[in-house]
Design brief:
It is a single chain. With 283 residues, this protein is an all-alpha fold. The chain folds into two domains: 60 residues, no CATH class; 213 residues, MetI-like (MetI-like fold). It is 71% helix and 0% strand. It is built from 15 helices and no strands. Helix 5 packs across helix 9. The protein starts with a helix and ends in a 5-residue tail after the last helix. 29% of the residues are buried.
Length: 283
């Protein structure tokens, strides 16, 4: 029976080949971007001005990356995006985790109704609230500054739900033991809950950082000056040729924009996988 249940060699080889082909198809655009970023303009464009297919660079022109920092002003956009994404990740992580702890382990009037309202916010596209959010941001003075990129994302329905699901896996007996020892709710969260659900917090941090890093529509609405623009807005300007005309420099800038996300996932990939698995554990 075990031999019948085990897939044969041909089936396993076919499955591996399909997975590898899918991975190659996903990595091909990134490889083309990286190779193009190291070429000269002559190697990149044909006689009719069209982009040539991917090919090995004749001369590795690493200076394209230095020029991307200068001509495309990637350095300024990098700083703005890092500050916005970093603050959003830290503050949203704290707010979502505390709210998830309250919904999962505390008993208070109206808890079920409030949680239902929180879940209801996930059913509408975030763009629906942008008109009201922009009017409110204008009244508060949160337009064309860093607050406009951070404050609207300090909590989210998905983040609260994700943390609530993770915190429900923490045994109530641990919290009861802490209360017997005289711990407050804040101490219970910080000393018992937080270390237990750290993988889920790290996974949510990756989701939040990527969402803030890639945000385009909201920054396009609330950011006017070039000093406050973020990387997605820079990509739009690169695509239209407003900043630079050289395709290798554009691809070098796009590569620099992508690197932090890749590094973040590589650094926290184990915590990410454990965090996703943790939220799927039943009570």
């Amino acid at each position: 029976m075990s031999a019948l249940r085990r897939p044969n060699f041909a089936a396993r080889a076919l499955a591996h080949a399909a997975v590898y082909m899918l991975a190659i198809s996903m990595l091909a655009p990134f490889a083309w971007m990286l190779l193009t970023s190291l070429k000269t303009d002559q190697q990149t464009l044909g006689g009719d001005g069209r982009l040539l297919p991917a090919g090995w660079p004749w001369d590795w022109k690493w200076s394209n990356y230095a020029e991307a920092f200068g001509q495309a002003r990637i350095r300024d956009y990098y700083l703005n995006s890092l500050i916005a994404a970093g603050l959003t990740t830290l503050l949203a992580g704290a707010h979502n985790a505390l709210a998830g702890f309250a919904f999962a382990k505390l008993r208070f009037a109206g808890r079920a109704v409030l949680f239902a309202v929180t879940l209801a916010t996930m059913m509408l596209p975030v763009q629906v609230s942008f008109i009201f959010a922009y009017l409110l941001a204008g009244r508060l003075g949160f337009v064309d500054n860093m607050q406009a990129l951070v404050v609207p994302f300090l909590a989210s329905g998905f983040g609260i739900y994700y943390m609530r699901q993770a915190i429900t896996t923490v045994p109530d007996s641990l919290l009861e033991a802490g209360r017997i020892d005289g711990m407050s709710d804040v101490e219970l969260f910080w000393l018992i809950v937080r270390p237990t659900i750290w993988p889920a917090i790290a996974a949510l941090g990756i989701f939040t950082f990527i969402g803030s890093w890639n945000a385009f529509f909201w920054p396009l609405i609330v950011i006017d000056s070039s000093q406050s623009k973020t990387l997605p807005l820079a990509i739009a300007e690169l695509a239209t040729g407003q900043l630079v005309l050289s395709w290798p420099i554009r691809m070098a800038a796009a590569t620099l924009i992508t690197l932090p996300l890749i590094a973040l996932f590589i650094a926290f990939q184990r915590a990410f996988v454990r965090g996703v698995a943790l939220t799927g554990v039943k009570e």
